[in-house]
Amino acid sequence: MTTSLLQNHQLRWPANWAEVFGREAPLIIEIGFGSGHFLVDLAQKRPSTNVIGVEISLPSLEKAQRKVQNLGLQNVRLLQSDARYLLQALCQPESISEVYINFPDPWPKAKQLHRRLINVDFLHLLATRMVPSGLLDVATDHADYALAITDALESTPYFRSRLTTTFVTEDTERLRTKYEQIGLDEGRICHYYKFVRCDTAVPQSYPIPKEFPMPHAVLQSPLSLDEIEVRYGRWQHSHHACHINFMELYRARDEDVLFVEAYIKEAPVAQRLGLVIRQRQPGNYVINLHELGFPRATRGVQLAIGQLATWLLSLHPQTEILHHNLLPESWTQETA
Ligand SMILES: C[S@@+](CC[C@H](N)C(=O)[O-])C[C@H]1O[C@@H](n2cnc3c(N)ncnc32)[C@H](O)[C@@H]1O
User: Fold this and answer.
1) Quick one: 172 and 281 in the same domain?
2) Any bridge partners for residue 15, and if so which?
3) What is the residue with the minimal CA distance to atom 12 of ligand 1?
4) 68: how many CB neighbours lie within 10 A of its CB?
5) What is the CATH number of the domain that holds 54?
6) 271 occurs within a structural domain
7) Which H or E run includes 102?
8) Burial label, 279 (beta-carbon count in 10 A; 0-12, 13-18, 19+)
9) Do residues 149 and 231 share a domain?
10) Nearest CA to ligand 1 atom 27
């Protein structure tokens, strides 16, 4: 039997969902499925659709995977990811037929508000990926988040309500989710939103991220690997919405290799990966990406290798670049 749990690194940008599911069918996504009851019910009731459940919590994914397996469901796949990554990197424009977001985390404190999933920007991203007339159902039991969701849905030009009002506070038709039941038991009012993607054209402001050929830079330097190692210190670099944090440096035990741990954030992708400075012969160094953890060779990785090479150049005036395959912007001096 096919496994329902998707391996992120095996999915192309965008993913070929027909190939993943083994058939063409309308695509439905549930974001933050939690216990997985609603997701499994959806997949059972709608056998002619391809259903993707996306979650960041591993225990939730494992529980849902067991349910899917026990029921032998073939039309559901589970992905551990931030929903924004699934939508922007893995889904083609106008490819999703239905989206369900049940009781998204409310992030109630003022300093956490930016973490909320649903806002006008998120609805814009969603609109780029949904088919015209695609359905969007949202529910929340959090009064303040409900105000924000109402505001976002009423101000977006890309969705309109399928109801005569923006929301209703009762919906007996749907299967209750775990958090819905908790909210009701604790006396909270639930808000249910049933929207549809309108025909309004949407600017394609959320491009699918690009992968580049494996980046490298080759340098010549009078410095030894030991001298390079002792000069290293953590630093950060930012360039056009890409943030790079150069973290620890490690020395391989029996090899002429330095391994720099880096965190690269370039929405919707965030990667923690290893950059390598390898001495091929005395004074000849190649900087490239370590394959550990299946990193993607993004623009941010190009920038990171360019910055590491720039740092090496700054250590000694006789250091020079012999060749590289990096984008011109990788050599920028602008820092965070
Ligand atoms: C409050 S729970 C609701 C669970 C379930 N939908 C329910 O109604 O019982 C919110 C869920 O969304 C998941 N989640 C939060 N942010 C997410 C994101 N950006 N992408 C995917 N899942 C997310 C959390 O891990 C959590 O399981």
Assistant:
1) no
2) none
3) 32
4) 25
5) 3.40.50.150
6) yes
7) strand 96-102
8) middle
9) no
10) 34
* 105 C-alpha to ligand 1 centroid (Å): 6
Distance 35 CA to ligand 1 centre (A): 9
In a domain, 99, yes or no: yes
* Ligand 1 midpoint to CA 117 (Å): 10
Nearest residue (by CA) to ligand 1, atom 19, is 82
Q: Is residue 206, in this structure, part of any structural domain at all?
A: no
- pLDDT, residue 335, reads 52
pLDDT at 336: 46
Pocket of ligand 1 (CB under 6 A): 31-35, 54-57, 60, 82-83, 102-105, 117, 177-180
Domain limits at 264? 216-331
Q: What is the pLDDT of residue 331?
A: 87
Quote the CA–CA distance of 96 and 213 in Å, as a whole number.
29
- Closest residue by Cα to atom 23, ligand 1, is 32
Using the mean position of ligand 1's atoms as its centre, give its distance from the Cα of residue 101 in Å: 8
Q: Does 85 fall in a domain?
A: yes
Please list the rounded mean pLDDT of every run of 10 residues in the chain (336 residues).
Answer: 84 97 98 97 98 97 96 97 98 98 96 96 98 98 98 98 98 95 97 97 94 96 96 94 96 93 96 97 96 94 97 96 94 65
Domain count of the fold of the chain:
2
Cβ-count burial 90-122 (b if 16+ within 10 Å, e if not): bbebebbbbbbbbbbebbeeeeeeeebbbbeeb
In a shared domain, residues 266 and 156: no
Ligand 1 atom 18: residue of nearest CA: 82
